[in-house]
Amino acid sequence: MNAHDLFDTAPLGSLISFANDQPRSPERFRRKLAAWRTWNGSGRLVAIYPRRLLGSSFQPAGFVLKIGEYGSEGVTILTVSRHFELTCPLDFAILEQPRPGMVRVLTEWNGKVELQHLAEDLPSAHEWLARHRYSNPFLSIVEADERGGLGVMRRAA
User: Fold this and answer.
1) Cα within 13 Å of Cα(62), Cβ side
2) Per-residue pLDDT of the chain in tens (157 residues, 90 and over written 9)
3) Where are the alpha helices (DSSP H) in the chain?
4) Which of 120, 97, 113, 116 is CA-nearest to residue 105?
């Protein structure tokens, strides 16, 4: 599927793969393999944003995938994420969608909603929020018939 289709169908929290349809290099070619991994991988869909005016120019619509978090002893030091515009030529696939009943921990800043954590249920979402401080967090319960896009997120207690 292309970036437009992913933008329209994938709900926040989905596990997404991206690829450029090139064969993977053998392990012995470390530089070629590193270049291949730049354009082939997977991540969690954490933000979807529309086309908007920034300063005197427009930022195209797109989405953000969280590729990984690095740290030790439960403390995240570095979060790696990739921003993709809708004109991106890569192929995308939805590997996994959030199950109904799961809870998204979201934050909003500058009109942009971003997923911070995907919890199994409401008590574990509250427990996670107690351990991790975010400004203006809110919760959204995953429903059975959810689709992606820029739909309004429902707030939960």
Assistant:
1) 13
2) 999 899 989 999 999 999 998 889 888 999 999 988 889 999 999 999 888 887 888 888 899 999 988 988 878 889 899 999 999 999 999 999 999 999 999 999 877 889 999 999 999 999 999 988 888 899 999 988 776 655 544 444 4
3) 3-9, 30-39, 122-131
4) 116
121's CB contacts (< 8 A; 6+ apart) are 101, 102, 103
For residues 59 and 84, the answer to whether their CB atoms sit within 8 Å is no
pTM: predicted TM-score of the whole model, two decimal places: 0.84
Residue 13 gets which letter from DSSP? Answer: T
